Amino acid sequence: MEKEYEDIPGTFVFDADRSREGYHLNQFCISLRLQKNRDEFNADEEAYLDKYPMKPEQRDAVLKRDWNRLLELGGNIYYTSKLAANDGINFQNLAGLMTGMGVEAYRDMMLHGGRSIEGNRYKSEWSED
Amino acid sequence: MARITAGVGCSHVPAIGVAMDTKITDQPYWQPVFKGFEKSREWMKEKNPDVIFLVYNDHCTAFDASCIPTFALGAAAEFKPADEGWGPRPVPVVKNHQKMASHIAQSLVLDEFDITIMNEMEVDHGLTVPLSVMYGDMGPDDEWPALVIPLAVNVVQYPAPTGNRCYNLGKAIRKAVESYEEDLNVVIFGTGGMSHQLQYKRAGLINAEWDKRFLDLLTEDPVYASKIPHVEYLREAGSEGVEMVMWHVMRGALDDEVIEVHRHYHVPASNTAVGHIILENKAA
């Protein structure tokens, strides 16, 4: 199926291909919705992760809290945000980390109307991606 | 008979719920967000619906990646606020009009909308935040003033249902409501949006111009609005802005011509543009 959304910069659209790739990673993340699982994970992260047959690079990104790498490997933000919540990081601070801007600069950008759409529609408008 | 008298479009930003739950709505950051709902709360008191048909999306709370229904209708007697990773919101349990929900489910399937029926379901901020902003502070021991029939729409895994499908589902919901014999005042909510992107390097995208055009179209030219393709939401309103397809369900359930009685738009709430609209059927 054609992916007409692939030329949007700085964005992963969570389609079936990404969902397949990230399945065990995302199922791990959502398990942290429940307090008993958060307690178990926080007591021994490695042992808890053994229950989820994710790829070594996904597991590594979890342990390193590499938020962007998690998305690159099929994670979805609504799932990875559960891992962030476990660490006491809310959606806005997580965005500050993912954009590389840092929490303060990101919050300031949002207070001034957010990231403009101008120059942010197509990958060709970005020097990277 | 039951009838749908009005529609409410409303963002459901989780941080809005947190602001209410932690009593910080008077802070300068939040004050303008809540100011725009003062009129709405008066309107809700006046309107006093018996039932709210609430279209929202679950954020990987009741549904994990193992099961992804496009449309899931809540038929359980009640829905508890879920622990989304930071403890359940301290708000009332949501009570259903169970008999009406079952009637709507049957009517929709016979009308060829093959929805999923949920006889057990917890609800997340997508459902409880719109109730909170429209009704004001309510504790866990209070009761929501209306019964609520939830309809969860998949907008997490691409593709969400099309705007056109959502719009036509709204029409089928109206037909189902109007064939229910009890005399009930029903208000339909479409929630989510507006422009926002929560993820990766383009996070923080806001497109106020696009959002305002969407609100204008929703009121004046809903059929045109329902044809907006997914890629336009994703590109122009951010990857999570595609939630706005759910507003078309609400709009489809109303008359072709409606009266816009209230509108509120503010940036930001956390990562998101907050949008809100109240539309009434002229005959209501």
Automatic annotation (TrEMBL), chain B:
Residues 9-274 form the Extradiol ring-cleavage dioxygenase class III enzyme subunit B domain. Pfam families: LigB. Gene3D superfamilies: LigB-like (3.40.830.10). Transmembrane segments: none annotated. InterPro entries: Xdiol_dOase_suB. One of its GO terms (molecular function) is oxidoreductase activity, acting on single donors with incorporation of molecular oxygen, incorporation of two atoms of oxygen. This is Protocatechuate 3,4-dioxygenase.
